[in-house]
Fold:
Amino acid sequence: MSTPAGNKSAAREQLLNTASRLFFEKGFHAVGVDTIVAESGITKMTMYKHFPSKDHLIVAILERSSEIYWDWFESVIQRIPEPLAQLSSIFEAVAKGHAKSPRSTYCLYQNVAVEFPSPEHIANQAAVKHKQSIMNRLQAICERAGLNSPDTLARQLFVLLEGFCISSRFFGADSPAADVVNAAKNLIDVHRE
Structure:
């Protein structure tokens, strides 16, 4: 038999899963708390025990998404000792994931930037924190690879990733996955000279 703590954890996961799906399908502002609790089968009182507000629920979804992203990122580069090859492998993995499912390049954080543009909003802050961590990680890899202007290259690679994510939303399976890999390699080559 489950413990009360286990039930709370299961309820929290159910809320996160349901809200994630609804936000993906309809956007953050279009989905209210009543819809989330109705579709999740969790009471409103239980929801507010886990999340003081809908905004806090959104932040929890972003934090969980960030954990998933970093697990994916590490799985891509962990077996590749050479930093230069790690950079290429990130873009190859993004393109490969997109080929399997264009939805894989959907970016929850880009939606947050659109729907919560105020830098003071907690969801916007969580999204910026995640995106900044990606740029920081790219820069660290560029530095280890001994590339010129690693901060500039990291920003360029970041913009390339972001652009590919947004173009995937417009063009779906027809988004140019091979182009993102070639563009990344060309950028990296420029910074090797």
